[in-house]
Amino acid sequence: MNAARPKEDARPLGDRMLRTLLPILVLAASVALWHFVVRFYEIPPYVLPGPLLVFSTLVSDWTVLSASLLITLATTLEGFLLAAVGGVGLAIIFSQSRLIEYSLYPYAVILQVTPIVAIAPLLLIYLPQQAAVLACAWIVAFFPVLANTTLGLNSVDRNLADLFRLYGASRRQVLWELKLPTALPYILAGLKIAGGLSLIGAVVAEIAAGSAGAGSGLAYRIVESGYRLNIPRMFAALLLLSVSGIAIFFALSFISHLLLRRWHESALAGEA
Predict the structure, then answer these.
(1) 46: DSSP letter
(2) Is 229 left (phi over 0), alpha (psi -120 to 50) or beta?
(3) What whole-number distance in Å separates Cα of residue 85 and Cα of residue 91?
(4) In this predicted model, what pLDDT tens digit does every residue of 53-77 receive, in sequence order?
(5) How far apart are CA 36 and CA 176, in angstroms?
(6) Are 207 and 223 in contact (CB under 8 A)?
(7) Would the N or C end of the chain have less CB density within 10 A of its end CB?
(8) With contact defined as beta carbons under 8 Å apart, do 228 and 79 qualify?
(9) Range list of H helices, the chain
(10) What pLDDT is attached to residue 162?
(11) Local confidence band at 8 (pLDDT 50, 70, 90 cut-offs)
(12) What CA–CA distance (Å, rounded) separates 228 from 106?
C-alpha cells in the first residue's frame, strides 16, 4: 500500500508539469519559427516585424502603451462589474418571478445576438465616448452572466427544494441557502466568460472610436499604428491585449478555484 502511494501522487504532479511546460514549449517554438521566417525571407518590418523588434518597441514605447493599457483595463473592469452585478441581480429576479423572466429574457437574447460591431458606431453617436465604450463592454459581458446564473438557479434539486418547503423555509431562505449555493459554479463559469468578453467589447468600441478620430485606449493605439504603418507598435499593443486577456482569465479561474475547491466536483476532479 505505502509503496504504491508515491506513484499515485506522482501522476498528478506529472500532469501538472506537462500542463505548464507544453504550452511554454509550443510558445517558444512559435516565437523561434516567427524569428526564423522573418530573418530568412528578410521580411520588412512594415509587413511583419520580428519578435525582437516587437519586444524592443514594447520597451521603448512603454510610456504610451502602458497609459493606454490602463484606460482599456479600467473600462474592462467597469464593464465586467456592471455585467456581474446586473446579470446576477436580474437572474435572481427572474428566479423569483416567471412573469418578469418571460417578459425580459427575450430582449436580453436580442441584445446578445446583435453584433457589437454594428452597435458601437451608434452608441458613439448618442453617448459620450467613454460611456459608449463602457456600454459596449457591458453589453458583450452581460448575457453570459445572466444566462449561466439563470440556469444555475433553475437547476436546484427538486427533492431539496421540496425538503425546504416541508420545513417551512421562506422564499428568502430558499434563495440564499439553497438556490445561490447551487448556482455558484454556474455564476463563476459565466463570470469567467464575461471577463474576456468585456475586454473584447471595450476593444471593439475603442477601435470604432479610433476610426472616428477619437480615443486613447490600447485598441486606439492599434488603429493609430495601422494608419501610420508603425506595425511593430501595433504588434506590441496586440501583445499587451493578449496578455491582459490571459491574466483576466487566470485571475477569475483562481477565484473560482478558491470558492469551489473544498466542495464542488469540478474543482475536486482537478486535484484528484
Answers:
(1) T
(2) left
(3) 10
(4) 999 999 999 999 999 999 999 999 9
(5) 58
(6) yes
(7) N
(8) no
(9) 5-40, 51-60, 62-96, 98-113, 116-126, 129-153, 158-166, 171-174, 180-211, 218-227, 231-260, 265-271
(10) 86
(11) very low
(12) 44
The CA–CA distances, whole Å, from 194 to 84, 190, 215 equal 8, 6, 23
pLDDT band at 214 (very low <50, low <70, confident <90, very high): low
Tell me, what amino acid is at 199? L
pTM, full prediction: 0.86
Mean pLDDT, rounded, of the chain: 88
3-state secondary structure (DSSP) of residue 213: coil
d(CA 219, CA 22): 30
Q: What is the DSSP string of 133-184?
A: HHHHHHHHHHHHHHHHHHHHHTT--HHHHHHHHHTT--HHHHIIIIIHHHHH
pLDDT of residue 205: 87
The pLDDT of residue 212: 52
267: its cell numbers: 474543482
Q: What is the number of other CB atoms lying within 10 angstroms of the CB of residue 123?
A: 21
Distance between CA atoms of residues 220 and 212, nearest Å: 10
